[in-house]
């Protein structure tokens, strides 16, 4: 499904080299020579199986503009993922929580992913929702660019997302608009950059362990 001419976010199927996405002397793990074949993620055709069709249809009925908000539906490894346009995520979550046929009352987690080199909208935010009423789980995923990494906060719908959104902001630089206190939660307030982006330098400081000094990762021997 393509909404308003916007190509859906996806991951390339070309082989990926290395492990951490860094180059030069940064990868000292010995995994730099890995070659991994990516898996193309595409729209799943109906029937989706299990309760997924029922959830899809109930949401389509309850949420105005469903076809505009949902970029695509993917069922992979027994899990349902709805790829959502970033600007619609908060109102979609409101419907998922409140509609009697859906009742996804709990947001288990909000996390970030960086698809550097395989998606033009490389920063993704992933939401795991659980319906305690119907014992069901779904995943929502939105994608934004590094240049415009803004996603509406869902804290008004799911208060549990508060610190989780702060962590995604801290580590990936995703700005959750409307968050009540979007500040760093792991790194110092004056820290520059976002450490879990794949183009972030490994860096490090010397560590002493049992009388032996271990150098920072970026100064260690690089295994090739």
Descriptive notes:
With 224 residues, the protein is α+β, with helices and mostly antiparallel strands. It has four helices and eleven strands; from the N terminus they run ββααββαββββαβββ. The N terminus is likely disordered. The longest helix is centred in the last third of the chain and has 12 residues. A five-stranded mixed sheet has the order 3-4-7-6-5. NDH-1 is composed of 14 different subunits. Subunits NuoB, C, D, E, F, and G constitute the peripheral sector of the complex.
A few lines on this structure:
With 224 residues, this protein is α+β, with helices and mostly antiparallel strands. The protein has four helices and eleven strands. A five-stranded mixed sheet has the order 3-4-7-6-5.
Which properties best describe this structure?
26% strand, 224 residues, Beta Polymerase, domain 2, disordered N terminus, alpha+beta, NADH-quinone oxidoreductase subunit C
Strands, helices and their partners?
Layout: E1 15-17, E2 35-37, H1 52-62, H2 66-69, E3 70-76, E4 79-84, H3 89-98, E5 106-114, E6 123-131, E7 136-144, E8 150-152, H4 161-172, E9 175-177, E10 207-209, E11 212-214
Parallel strand pairs: 4-7, 8-9
Antiparallel strand pairs: 1-2, 3-4, 5-6, 6-7, 10-11
Q: Can you tell me the residue ranges where pLDDT is under 50 for at least 5 consecutive residues? A: 1-9
Per DSSP, what share of the residues sits in E-state strands of 2 or more residues? Answer: 25-35%
CATH topology-level fold name: Beta Polymerase, domain 2
Helix segment count? 4
Determine the structural class based on helices, strands and strand pairing.
Answer: alpha+beta
Number of E strands: 11
Ends: how far apart? 42 Å
Query: Sheet with the most strands?
Result: 5 strands, mixed
For the residues shown, what is the average pLDDT? Answer: 86
Number of structural domains:
1
Shape descriptor: globular
CATH architecture: 2-Layer Sandwich
Tell me roughly what share of residues is in helical segments.
10-25%
SSE pattern: EEHHEEHEEEEHEEE
